[in-house]
Amino acid sequence: MAAPSHALPFLSPAGTASSVRAIPRRRAAHLRCAAAAGQAGFFTRLGRLIKEKAKSDVEKLFSGFSKTRENLSVVDELLTYWNLADTDRVLDELEEALLVSDFGPKISFRIVDTLREEIRDGKLKSGAEIKAALKRCILELLTSKGGNSELNLGFRKPSVIMIVGVNGGGKTTSLGKLAHRFKNEGVKVLMAAGDTFRAAARDQLEVWAERTGSEIVIDNDKKAQPPAVLSQAVKRGKREGFDVVLCDTSGRLHTNYGLMEELVTCKKVLAKALPGAPNEILLVLDGTTGLNMLQQAREFNDVVGVTGFILTKLDGTARGGCVVSVVDELGIPVKFVGVGEGVEDLQPFDAEAFVEAIFP
């Protein structure tokens, strides 16, 4: 008896029967796993590469945090001629400098208490040692509470990133600058103009798409709702092999319950279009608002589960201590900081570079 054939029939374009050798199930499964592993490796390398480039951007961080360095310049004045008898006075003034720089009462008190204890135990014996310990405390807060600040882009294409925030915080601009960074790494980017309530936002995103060489999905009928636009974009991203889909959303006050609930719908629609999406939900926070941004962050996180922050407008006028306050309060990492108006001025956040940038 002849061995059973493993060829499967199919119809050629002419409609005649032909055959193609079937791929054994085990081999097909292996190929699928290999493809998934390749995509995962691509996104892991991409996230790491973007993060590592923060090391080369320290000079822009320095210019962005000039106001914070000015407020903290008193630290060197206090510690240059420090002696043990002046400990209480020096620490009180140090605490005030941290408060002025928007570190917040809880963090400022905690840092100063740690320094006081280490001085009392004889671990810190000079002004230089106290300053080094101060910087170490801030770095430990950022790294222990903030976790990994690399982008988590998932394991399959397209990776989906959803940008949320209040009006005027810099959402659309941040999305455009993020697209620029991706494009510089050879990534195929699709933008979704999910801010359908503001025609200017759509127009602005179209400019960014042209500027960065990205594709864009917009509401052609002018009546589409944000969830529909985002769903369409992700489906196109799957169909046409895009690497990353960047989803803009309408700005909203964190106190507007109805609009906040719409974000939940957007998130569900993305997950339905692509299981596991969105890979990141990045909340844009205006750095000039200082500690007032904390309430916004709490509300957005409660509603949609924020995975990372983009702090914008840290252009020399903001007080950088708010970065530490946000991370300490919510345990969510800062992933990018905006330190100017230029296309390159959305910088990957690096805790060590940040600490060096805020001290003179």
TrEMBL record:
Q: What is this protein called?
A: SRP54-type proteins GTP-binding domain-containing protein
Record-linked Gene3D superfamilies? P-loop containing nucleotide triphosphate hydrolases, Signal recognition particle SRP54, nucleotide-binding domain
Which controlled-vocabulary keywords does the entry list? Answer: GTP-binding, Membrane, Nucleotide-binding, Receptor
An annotated GO BP: SRP-dependent cotranslational protein targeting to membrane
Q: Family assignment?
A: Belongs to the GTP-binding SRP family.
Instruction: Enumerate the InterPro entries for this protein.
Output: AAA+_ATPase, P-loop_NTPase, Signal_recog_particl_SRP54_hlx, SR_rcpt_FtsY, SRP/SRP_N, SRP54_GTPase_dom, SRP54_N_sf
Location of this chain's protein in the cell:
Membrane
Lineage at the top is: Eukaryota, Viridiplantae, Streptophyta, Embryophyta, Tracheophyta
The lineage's top-level taxon is: Eukaryota
Which PROSITE patterns does the UniProt record give?
A: SRP54
Q: Name one GO molecular function term.
A: GTP binding
GO cellular component terms attached to this protein's record = cytoplasm; membrane
Q: Which SMART domains match?
A: AAA, SRP54, SRP54_N
